[in-house]
């Protein structure tokens, strides 16, 4: 189905992201950034935001994760091909890479909102007739980091190719180009040329969102490489605006050429301001697309209580009104569903009667997946007969430290089971489908990152939506969520009100002890008190009234897109 001309003419926002997680069966995403992008476009479609989205199309770079009998991660390379749901853009555009003309086309995927509004996503590809074989592979691999040359070429295709393709398709009324991270910052070059070198006009057309408080997460390229890839075609003004201590910094380029800049939580904006002190940095805290992440049993309760809740999620702040028995039955159905799935995909069988604590995310070392095993004997004594654990997540194939964490989880699980009968399960091949089961089927959602290295995080929001309690370090969204409603879970360690507090130093011993104390003295006794536990579950659900992408997208519409809409809805109104 083609995109109607009137839709193109009325589209005023272009959302440019390196990855967009549209569906588990369409692996155009790597992790949190892509999953958030998928939720963003779903809410934008529901809210009829006049948006078009652009990302790259990848056929490889994915892997199926397996664990051997010792807990070693093994990877099985996966390739993916397009199918009938996609339309091919007929007329490719052309961009220059060094001295070569490279053709860029796209596949079209349509997100359909609740009212039927269509939001197009164009997935850029160089795998088309007319390109040399080496050119066809440019967009082939997700986050191709085999060389800096490959990475910068992909970002040229995303930024310059994205803007150029939209122009060629008739999207000629774009007022705001929303760059989701620095990967798309080369879009400013195409805009600079479109606007006749008018830097101020470029700035007035760009909004920039950064997602990482870690310096290594901001792409930098040697100036010599930038000049080599662009030859003489990169404007000197642009080259200067990306300069950063002899390198070319994609985040700095995006910030220098944007009218609006934001982090993705309040704390993340503070950290970003310290990293880039010369810029004004606002914040729009991330959210989740509630209809996508709510489990069916929980959704049925909401539908019965508030028939229009998906369009008006603020009603969830009244979750305390939900019936205890209905909520209990829904959670048990989710828990049994998860454990039933786990029993078919693991050799260590969980017990439906025990408190099930879940941890699922990428196994980057700063996320400290193995923190809870710091004093493994104390953990075993506390959990014996009370608690079991389920872990899931992937380590990058080249991240040996992350793989070592996986092996540590496996070995710790063996020790706990042999000495205390405590079960620890590792689930293979973490993806969105498994995530949906985990965030609704666990009793507790665990998060133990090093403080202020997690920009926002959204898995805990998904758990809360489904009545699962958070047990988390106060970082990212949980700093805001716990302050908003401390009955929605527990905080491991202090908040950030006293920067001199030694407990904020990411000391493993301090944080592990805090976890053990809460688990032994609060979580387990509360779980045994049926009424108190359900009371907390309803408080967790109430957080979804704020931590959702409908609220988030409305904030972008107001602050970044300057759309004439009603005043953005606020939690508590």
Quick synopsis:
This protein has 573 residues and is an alpha/beta fold.
The beta-strand count equals 21
CATH class wording of the largest domain: Alpha Beta
Provide the CATH topology of the largest domain: Rossmann fold
**Overall shape:** globular
Helix proportion: 25-40%
Beta-strand proportion: 15-25%
Number of domains: 2
- Largest sheet, if any? 10 strands, mixed
The CATH level-2 architecture of the largest domain is identified as 3-Layer(aba) Sandwich
Q: Over all CA atoms, what is the radius of gyration?
A: 24 Å
Mean pLDDT equals 93
* Euclidean distance between termini CA atoms: 40 Å
Which ranges are low-confidence, i.e. pLDDT below 50, for 5 or more consecutive residues?
A: none
Please give the count of helices. 21
Q: Give the CATH H-level superfamily of the largest domain.
A: Glycogen Phosphorylase B
Describe what you observe in this structure:
- With 573 residues, the protein is of the alpha/beta class.
- The protein has two domains: 5-64 and 72-283, 3-Layer(aba) Sandwich (Rossmann fold), CATH 3.40.50; 296-547, Rossmann fold.
- Helices cover 39% and strands 18% of the residues.
- It is built from 21 helices and 21 strands.
- The strands form four sheets. Strands 1, 2, 5, 6, 7, 8, 9, 10, 14 and 15 form a ten-stranded mixed sheet that branches. The chain has a six-stranded parallel sheet with strand order 18-17-16-19-20-21, sandwiched between helices. The chain has a three-stranded antiparallel sheet with strand order 11-13-12.
- α2 (32-46) packs across α21 and α14 (376-383) packs across α15 (400-420).
């Amino acid at each position: 189905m083609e995109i109607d001309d009137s839709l193109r003419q009325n589209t005023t926002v272009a959302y440019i992201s390196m990855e967009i997680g549209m569906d588990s069966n369409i692996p155009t995403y790597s992790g949190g950034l892509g999953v958030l992008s998928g939720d963003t476009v779903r809410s934008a479609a529901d809210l009829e935001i006049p948006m078009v989205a652009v990302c790259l199309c990848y056929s490889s770079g994915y892997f199926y994760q397996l664990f051997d009998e010792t807990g070693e991660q093994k990877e099985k390379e996966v390739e993916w091909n397009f199918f009938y749901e996609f339309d091919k853009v007929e007329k490719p555009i052309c961009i220059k890479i060094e001295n070569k003309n490279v053709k860029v086309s796209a596949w079209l995927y349509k997100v359909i909102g609740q009212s039927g509004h269509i939001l197009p996503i164009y997935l850029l590809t160089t795998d088309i007739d007319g390109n040399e074989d080496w050119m066809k592979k440019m967009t082939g691999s997700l986050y191709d980091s085999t060389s800096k040359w490959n990475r910068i070429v992909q970002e040229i295709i995303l930024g310059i190719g994205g803007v150029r393709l939209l122009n060629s398709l008739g999207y000629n009324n774009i007022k705001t180009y929303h760059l989701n991270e620095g990967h798309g910052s080369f879009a400013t070059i195409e805009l600079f040329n479109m606007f006749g070198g008018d830097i101020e006009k470029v700035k007035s057309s760009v909004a920039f969102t950064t997602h990482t408080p870690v310096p290594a997460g901001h792409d930098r390229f040697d100036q010599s490489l930038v000049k080599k890839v662009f030859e003489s075609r990169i404007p000197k003004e642009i080259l200067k605006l990306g300069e950063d201590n002899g390198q070319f910094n994609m985040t700095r380029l995006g910030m220098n050429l944007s009218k609006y800049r934001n982090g993705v939580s309040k704390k993340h904006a503070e950290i970003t301001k310290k990293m880039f002190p010369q810029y004004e940095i606002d914040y729009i805290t991330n959210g989740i697309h509630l209809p996508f992440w709510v489990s069916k049993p929980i959704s049925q309760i909401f539908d019965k209580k508030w028939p229009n809740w998906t369009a008006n999620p603020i009603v969830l702040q009244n979750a305390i009104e939900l019936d205890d028995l209905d909520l209990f039955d829904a959670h048990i159905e989710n828990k049994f569903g998860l454990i039933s799935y786990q029993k078919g995909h693991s050799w260590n069988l969980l017990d439906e009667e025990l408190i099930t604590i879940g941890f699922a995310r990428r196994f980057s070392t700063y996320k400290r997946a193995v923190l809870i095993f710091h004093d493994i004997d104390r953990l075993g004594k506390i959990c014996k007969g009370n608690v079991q654990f389920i872990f899931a997540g992937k380590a990058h194939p080249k991240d040996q430290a992350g793989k070592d964490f996986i092996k540590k989880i496996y070995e710790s699980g063996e020790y706990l089971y042999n000495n205390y009968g405590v079960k620890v399960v590792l689930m293979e091949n973490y993806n969105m489908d498994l995530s949906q089961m985990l965030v609704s089927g666990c009793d507790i959602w665990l998060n133990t990152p090093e403080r202020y290295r997690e920009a926002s995080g959204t898995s805990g929001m998904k758990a809360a939506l489904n009545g699962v309690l958070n047990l988390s370090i106060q970082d990212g969204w949980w700093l805001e969520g716990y302050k908003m409603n401390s009955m929605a879970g527990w905080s491991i360690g202090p908040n950030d009100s006293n920067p001199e507090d030694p407990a904020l130093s990411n000391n493993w011993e301090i944080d592990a002890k805090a976890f053990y104390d809460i688990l032994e003295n609060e979580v387990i006794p509360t779980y045994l008190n049926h009424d108190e536990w359900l009371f907390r579950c309803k408080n967790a659900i109430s957080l979804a009234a704020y931590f959702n992408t409908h609220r988030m997208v409305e904030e972008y519409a107001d602050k970044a897109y300057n759309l004439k809409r009603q005043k953005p809805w606020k939690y508590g109104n």
